[in-house]
Design brief:
mainly alpha, Four Helix Bundle (Hemerythrin (Met), subunit A), 68% helix
């Protein structure tokens, strides 16, 4: 029953090395030449990016133990289109995570373009919009959406592996930043000083 869940866990971990390779733009260009290096990096980025997302999504929908918070558990929201019942409290918690998570993800792609999001390659440092809030809005959005969807589907194992997903996202973000510093040096260092990585600063 739980085989697919564990396959997805192995999958999200297995694509990390390829993701790391995809952001080593300077090393790839030095090894293969500028044009070929860029192309190889983009291919690595597409495979690792979509692979990571598909395996992550698999954590939500894989067969697993379902849970219900013992508050308002008899009050449900029914979605007639798919004949699916969601505990009201789960729906409230889901919305509080999923809505801001989706907003961060969509606005992040809007600021950088879908191509940059897919290939992990940018020509300039973007520090406007959601990128003035955190340096990795799409990853923060993904983590928030992960918690929200886990509650939406009452997916217990998916919720339990949230710390693992936070760790993986942190490692990916740190690797990307190491490479961005090599490419943009002081410009990115200054950006890092102004904007937090994943946790927004709440001004007084």
């Amino acid at each position: 029953m739980y085989m697919w869940f564990f396959i997805c866990i192995i999958g999200v971990i297995a694509v990390i090395p390829l993701h790391f390779l995809s952001v080593e733009h300077l090393k790839l260009q030095e090894k293969y030449g500028k044009e070929k290096g860029i192309k190889i990096g983009e291919i690595y980025g597409l495979i690792s990016g979509w692979g990571f997302f598909m395996f992550w999504m698999g954590l939500w929908v894989s067969p697993q133990v379902r849970f219900t918070i013992p508050i308002l558990q008899h009050v449900s929201v029914i979605i007639p289109i798919v004949n699916f019942s969601i505990p009201l409290l789960h729906m409230i918690i889901c919305s509080s995570f999923l809505v801001p998570g989706a907003w961060l993800g969509i606005m992040g792609v809007k600021e950088t373009t879908l191509k940059v999001a897919e290939t992990h390659r940018t020509e300039k440092i973007v520090d406007t919009g959601v990128y003035s809030i955190v340096r990795h809005p799409q990853y923060l959005g993904g983590l928030l959406a992960h918690v929200g969807i886990s509650f939406l589907l009452s997916a217990w194992y998916s919720l339990l592996v949230s710390p693992l997903m936070i760790l993986l996202v942190y490692l990916i973000s740190r690797k990307e930043e190491e490479e961005l510093i090599k490419e943009f040096s002081k410009e990115y260092e200054d950006y890092k000083k102004r904007v937090p990585m994943l946790l927004p600063k709440f001004k007084k």
